Amino acid sequence: xxxxxxxxxxxxxxxxxxxxxxxxxxxxxxxxxxxxxxxxxxxxxxxxxxxxxxxxxxxxxxxxxxxxxxxxxxxxxxxxxxxxxxxxxxxxxxxxxxxxxxxxxxxxxxxxxxxxxxxxxxxxxxxxxxxxxxxxxxxxxxxxxxxxxxxxxxxxxxxxxxxxxxxxxxxxxxxxxxxxxxxxxxxxxxxxxxxxxxxxxxxxxxxxxxxxxxxxxxxxxxxxxxxxxxxxxxxxxxxxxxxxxxxxxxxxxxxxxxxxxxxxxxxxxxxxxxxxxxxxxxxxxxxxxxxxxxxxxxxxxxxxxxxxxxxxxxx
Length: 315
Prior knowledge:
Blueprint: H1 4-18, E1 23-26, H2 31-44, E2 48-54, H3 62-72, E3 77-81, H4 83-89, H5 96-118, E4 122-124, H6 129-134, E5 159-161, H7 169-178, H8 204-226, E6 235-249, E7 252-265, E8 273-274, H9 279-292, E9 297-302
Parallel strand pairs: 1-2, 1-4, 2-3, 4-5, 7-9
Antiparallel strand pairs: 6-7, 7-8
């Protein structure tokens, strides 16, 4: 049986012995990176510099919420606003693995910039077991590269420390509860952000569409669960597909894109089953999305694929 308290103590002691200089950590606000940051902060205190990167690919109001949450845990936080750099680097890129690798490399380059400012020698990451398993290597096939694994450049100068590397999501959540971290029950959010929920070309407008659609899906499913209409899914979001179809807005012919709603139940993300959502909830989601981005999206569909054969995210 996993002992969260013992793991926290052992992991902090190990980092105290491993890290003899300044370290930085990427704090996305998700449960993995936040747990890693809080444990590292307990271990090395002022030696730890936390960096949050606003890539322009975050969810609605996410930057403000993350800054407030990390400040509450006393973390030494720097926010880097890098939206323009990300959109420039990803311009015209549509292949999923290429997106992930570009995001991963820029992720590291930004931290190397911060490293130069603070003189950091170590990079602490919230990598967990599914990240490196799905990223392939050796006899394992690459299912999808994770930005903190498959996207790391070969000439990176930082020494990587991964205290959660052998854990699964359910175990990390136990650590978060033991540490009284607010995001203990927060649903997973991919490291590359909305880039992997915006299939096809990434533009500010298309990312805006998927950001609004994701917010609507989260609001409606959380409200339905709160009202007792359904069980809250393990992960739930919207993705924008590069599929156009004919629709009608008022009396005018429209040719808009397609949003797919995805919601699954899982324990650790390694396998998942699609969630059963009441039709009245799906109807409200569809109506809100098409009204919110009128003219851009004219079709909303629901994904009923398990993992396997599909993955949870679409890219």
